[in-house]
C-alpha cells in the first residue's frame, strides 16, 4: 500500500493538482496519474508548481493518460471517492475502516484512490470500475470538500493504516535539575524568605518541605533553578540595600 496510486479525473484547476502533489508527499506517497485534465500541460503549469510547494518531484514523475482504464493499469483494488448516493455500484465504506482492513490482509493489494472533477465529481461509469466507494465522514448539512483537501484526508488515513510516521521533536528535551540543585535552590530561597520576614527561622513549620514537594512535582529544569535562585538573590540584595539607607 506504500505504492498507492492517486488518480485525478478531468481536473480543471491547476492549483488542485499542485496541492494534491503536496498532500501526497507529506504522507509519503508519490504515484500520481491524471486522466484527461482540462489543461494538457497542467503538470508544469505555474499555479500547479506553486501549490506543490516543494513537491515538484511528484509533478515531474506524474503521468497524464486519456482514460481511467489506462490509469488503473496494474492496480488490484480501486477506491472511488463519490458523495452522491447510487442505487447500483460498489459498496460504500468509511475510509479509515477500509484502509485498516486492506492493510491487515496477508498480501495487501496495489491500491488506487480515484477522485473526480471539481465540478461534477465522478461519473457513474467511472465509479462502476472501482471495487469500493469511500465516503469521508462530514457534517450532514455540508459535505463538499475541496479536491486537494479530500486527497489530504485520505492520504493521512491511509498512512495511519500502514503504520504512520513518528512525530519528530522540534526542540531538545530540557535538562532536569538533580536533587542537589533543588536543595541548593531551597537553601537560597530559605535565606531570602527569612530576609523579607516571610519565614521565621524559630518557627519554620513545614514551609520548606512543602516547597520541596512543589519543586519535585514541577520537575524543574536547570535553567528554571537558575531563574529562581536569581530571584532569591535579588530579594536579598534589595533587603540589604534598604537596610543600609
Automatic annotation (TrEMBL):
<dbReference type="InterPro" id="IPR029026">
    <property type="entry name" value="tRNA_m1G_MTases_N"/>
</dbReference>
<feature type="domain" description="tRNA/rRNA methyltransferase SpoU type">
    <location>
        <begin position="5"/>
        <end position="156"/>
    </location>
</feature>
<keyword id="KW-0808">Transferase</keyword>
<comment type="similarity">
    <text>Belongs to the class IV-like SAM-binding methyltransferase superfamily. RNA methyltransferase TrmH family.</text>
</comment>
<comment type="subunit">
    <text>Homodimer.</text>
</comment>
<dbReference type="Pfam" id="PF00588">
    <property type="entry name" value="SpoU_methylase"/>
</dbReference>
<dbReference type="GO" id="GO:0005829">
    <property type="term" value="C:cytosol"/>
</dbReference>
<keyword id="KW-0489">Methyltransferase</keyword>
<dbReference type="GO" id="GO:0003723">
    <property type="term" value="F:RNA binding"/>
</dbReference>
<dbReference type="InterPro" id="IPR004384">
    <property type="entry name" value="RNA_MeTrfase_TrmJ/LasT"/>
</dbReference>
<protein>
    <recommendedName>
        <fullName>tRNA (cytidine/uridine-2'-O-)-methyltransferase TrmJ</fullName>
        <ecNumber>2.1.1.200</ecNumber>
    </recommendedName>
</protein>
<dbReference type="GO" id="GO:0002128">
    <property type="term" value="P:tRNA nucleoside ribose methylation"/>
</dbReference>
<dbReference type="GO" id="GO:0106339">
    <property type="term" value="F:tRNA (cytidine(32)-2'-O)-methyltransferase activity"/>
</dbReference>
<comment type="function">
    <text>Catalyzes the formation of 2'O-methylated cytidine (Cm32) or 2'O-methylated uridine (Um32) at position 32 in tRNA.</text>
</comment>
<keyword id="KW-0963">Cytoplasm</keyword>
<dbReference type="GO" id="GO:0160206">
    <property type="term" value="F:tRNA (cytidine(32)/uridine(32)-2'-O)-methyltransferase activity"/>
</dbReference>
<dbReference type="InterPro" id="IPR001537">
    <property type="entry name" value="SpoU_MeTrfase"/>
</dbReference>
<keyword id="KW-0819">tRNA processing</keyword>
<keyword id="KW-0949">S-adenosyl-L-methionine</keyword>
<dbReference type="InterPro" id="IPR029028">
    <property type="entry name" value="Alpha/beta_knot_MTases"/>
</dbReference>
Amino acid at each position: 500500500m506504500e505504492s498507492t496510486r492517486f488518480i485525478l479525473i478531468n481536473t480543471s484547476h491547476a492549483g488542485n493538482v499542485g496541492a494534491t502533489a503536496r498532500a501526497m508527499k507529506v504522507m509519503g506517497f508519490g504515484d500520481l496519474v491524471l486522466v484527461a485534465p482540462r489543461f494538457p500541460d497542467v503538470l508544469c503549469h505555474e499555479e500547479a508548481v506553486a501549490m506543490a510547494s516543494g513537491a515538484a518531484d511528484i509533478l515531474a514523475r506524474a503521468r497524464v493518460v486519456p482514460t481511467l482504464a489506462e490509469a488503473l493499469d496494474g492496480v488490484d483494488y480501486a477506491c472511488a471517492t463519490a458523495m452522491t448516493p447510487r442505487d447500483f455500484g460498489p459498496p460504500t465504506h468509511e475510509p479509515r475502516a477500509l484502509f485498516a482492513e486492506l492493510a491487515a490482509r496477508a498480501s495487501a493489494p496495489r491500491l488506487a484512490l480515484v477522485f473526480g472533477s471539481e465540478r461534477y465529481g465522478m461519473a457513474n461509469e467511472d465509479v462502476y470500475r472501482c471495487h469500493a466507494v469511500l465516503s469521508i465522514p462530514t457534517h450532514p448539512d455540508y459535505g463538499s470538500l475541496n479536491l486537494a483537501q479530500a486527497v489530504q484526508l485520505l492520504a493521512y488515513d491511509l498512512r495511519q493504516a500502514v503504520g504512520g510516521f513518528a512525530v519528530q521533536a522540534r526542540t531538545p528535551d530540557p535538562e532536569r535539575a538533580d536533587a542537589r540543585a533543588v536543595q541548593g535552590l531551597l537553601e537560597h530561597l530559605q535565606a531570602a524568605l527569612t530576609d523579607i520576614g516571610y519565614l521565621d527561622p524559630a518557627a519554620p513549620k513545614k514551609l520548606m518541605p512543602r516547597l520541596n514537594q512543589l519543586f519535585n512535582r514541577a520537575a524543574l529544569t536547570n535553567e528554571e533553578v537558575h531563574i529562581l535562585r536569581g530571584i532569591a538573590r535579588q530579594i536579598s540584595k534589595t533587603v540589604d540595600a534598604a537596610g543600609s539607607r
